[in-house]
Amino acid sequence: MKASPSEPLILNVDDTDAARYAKTRILQRAGFRVIDAESGGQALQLANEHMPDLVLLDTKLPDINGFEVCRQLKQDPHTAMVLVLQTSASYVSSPDKVRALDSGADNYLFEPIEPEELVANVRALLRLGRVERELRDMDRRKDEFLAILAHELRNPLGPIRNAVELLRSLDPHSSPAQENARRVILRQTDHMVRLVDDLLDVSRISQGKITLRRAEVELCGLLKSAVETAEPNIAARRHALTVKLPDHEIWVDGDSVRLTQVVGNLLNNAAKFTPPGGRIALAACLEGPEAVIRVTDNGIGIAPEQVGSIFDLFAQAGHSPDRVQDGLGIGLSLVRTLVNLHGGSVSVQSPGPGQGSTFEVRLPTLARTPAADETDCSAEVQAPPRAADTYRILVVDDNIDSAEIVAALLQFAGHEVHMAHDGAGAIAAALRLLPDVVFLDIGLPDMSGVEVAATLRRYPQLAKTVLVALTGYGQDKDRMGAMAAGFNHHLTKPVNMETLNDTVRTFMRPH
Fold first, then answer.
1. Which of 136, 143, 184, 243 is the 20 to 30 A CA-CA neighbour of 100?
2. pTM reported for the whole predicted model
3. The Histidine kinase domain covers which part of the protein (predicted)?
């Protein structure tokens, strides 16, 4: 049977001419394309040049043994996905097979091998390889879909949130009923933003792209910030929250944003799975060289058989009877990933269903003594922000609602604001107005915001203009692409009035 160019390519590696010839003929008669190698070095070279679908690899070779050849193939990113079927007439004990599989081999056969057995094993491995490639392709498409989904969801969320904040600013003395309605909209919008961020974090986890921005972090202050984030959910379900923190500082090496996310997820999880009117407790302390954070509730609890899987992606131990939908099952998986990245551990204990749960996070601490004038865990008093100066600002967004709301928020702060809704209009407006700041969407109908930014940077008269990307694309690669194109800053939709004004103040402050 003659092999067609579309048939799988097999690299047959054996230093014995007769054995190599026999296996090649068997595979060719089965319809495979076959190339030969008689040494380990030649096998590695041909594998890199031809990228075979499978390597049929004898263990005993004159230069490099088959175990090492297999290990090098699997460690090289270029050939890591090439299937390896290892064979041997010399190493025929179970430890030899274990050694081969530990080196990365996909299967191991003892010689002599019947022709039917060889062909069947090759076909079985190729089927598995095909399925694995399809799964990788599906995973790649899933990541692309999540990024697009996040962008499309953030676009309407931005105008909704900003419109509510603008209404509040225009009518600060509204009735309690109106203010309550606004708070509901803001709370639910923030909840949608958290769901979008969780979806993106799933994508980042699967690609190993979550990175930490480490610094010395004081844990007590961080926990108070996390409590403020979770308080609306806790209050909405009429839970009693107690917080017990030490009167001394606890310092850790970590990413304050991600650690706040960890504690916030645990508190929101406790609120979600505790029936209304329940009790939640947050406590922190030192145990030896570790900081220990515990979140305890008297909620629905966890069955013993589910404790081991509660941190798995999309896992949910159950639901509170009064809840129709309890989220995506992502939060606890993110908690475990983020804690592990910090060199810590997370665990859960529960007496059983209906008896509540205790989640415990352990983090390594820093041996740091605070200076005499530093505060302990008491909340810091923030100085009120100074009044913003007036600047000329250009807002560019093809979503007219989004552009108008952002412009209105900036106008309310006293700025002179102009709008454009496509790339060409943005360039023309920038050259005409010479704005101090440009808030620029990335997804424009005629050209990308990145191209617009690169064009603006070529004009000397715009050299001092601050370019801020305001976009629904919020992955690390999006931020890096924006900065490389000449942006000064990157904001992910939706943004509130405070963030917009803080951004203007930060970049326009005299240096």
1. 136
2. 0.45
3. 148-367
- Give the Cα separation of 30 and 65 in Å (integer): 28
Residue burial 456-491, b: 16+ Cβ < 10 Å; e: rest: beeeeebeebbbbbbbbbbbeebbebbeebbbbbbb
Residue-wise pLDDT for 33-84, tens only, equals 999 999 999 999 999 999 999 999 998 899 988 899 999 999 998 898 899 9
Q: What is the dihedral of CA 206, 207, 208, 214, to 10 degrees?
A: -100
For 243-282, the pLDDT digits (tens) are 999 988 899 999 888 898 899 889 988 998 898 889 999 9
Classify burial at 511, counting beta carbons within 10 Å of its beta carbon; exposed 0-12, middle 13-18, buried 19 or more: exposed
Q: How far does the chain reach from its first CA to its final CA, in angstroms?
A: 77
Span 215-316+328-364 CATH architecture:
2-Layer Sandwich (3.30)
Of 345, 183, 337, 356, nearest to 269 (Cα)? 356
- Structure tokens given for 357: 């749960």
C-alpha torsion 92→98→100→104, nearest 10? 160
CB burial string 409-437: b at 16+ within 10 A, e below: bbeebebebbbbbbbebbbebbeebebbb
Tokens describing residue 497? 């009035």
Cα angle vertex 180, ends 177, 182, to 5°? Answer: 115
Q: What fold is seen in the domain 392-508?
A: Rossmann fold (3.40.50)
Residues whose CB is less than 8 angstroms from the CB of residue 429 and which lie 6 or more positions away in sequence, other chains included:
394, 396, 418, 420, 435
Q: Which CATH number fits domain 9-113: 3.40.800.20, 2.30.40.10, 3.50.50.60, 3.40.50.2300?
A: 3.40.50.2300
Distance between CA atoms of 112 and 161, rounded to whole angstroms?
Answer: 71
Q: How many CB atoms lie within 10 A of CB 354?
A: 11
| The two three-digit tokens of residue 277, written as one number | 């009117």
